Amino acid sequence: MTGVLTAESFDLVYTGIGALCWLPSIERWAETVAALLKPGGRLFIREGHPVLWATDEDISDSLHIVYPYFERDEPLVFDDDTTYVDTDQRVTATTTHEWNHGMGEIVTALLRHGMEITGLVEHQSVPWEALPGQMVCGEDGEWRLDREPWRMPLSYTLQAVKR
After folding, report:
1. Which SUPFAM superfamilies does the record associate with it (predicted)?
2. Residue 78 domain-assigned (yes or no)
3. Which residues make Cβ contacts (< 8 Å) with residue 161, sequence separation at least 6?
């Protein structure tokens, strides 16, 4: 690997919620993660579930899958002047480009680049009100569907080790 970061120099790579949707290729991301990790190095992901990313958050009466679950070459393009940061300020750069990546695509890309999956857990919660009008916040600060939370995963954690 060339560039600013030295290959095989990291013990841990962490990817947090909302990072993968900005990447057009999960394959290139997995290749980069594997290249950065030392043998025995670990990857930890806490991410919004691809089913959640495929759900329209603007429909508050029920769940509606309207966006792609699987990665596509062309991005989803949104124009919105709000931010997830708790503020009344509006953003000036309002256009975003986003991509979804299915669970199978993520796992397969990591396996293809020499990573061994050591854990994968799907969760019924996320740390923000992802579907306004359909969620309640628990004492742990995590948001869950207010009706039948077992209907869909909202986030996941994945752990892997570089072979």
Report:
1. S-adenosyl-L-methionine-dependent methyltransferases
2. yes
3. 40, 41, 42, 43, 115, 116, 118
Higher pLDDT, 64 or 82: 64
Query: Would 47 be classed as within a structural domain?
Result: yes
Confirm whether 3 is domain-assigned: no
Structural domain tally of the chain?
Answer: 1
Q: The CATH number of the domain where 119 resides is what?
A: 3.40.50
The residue with tokens 């990665």 is 71
Per-residue pLDDT tens over the stretch 68-96: 999 999 999 999 998 877 888 999 999 99
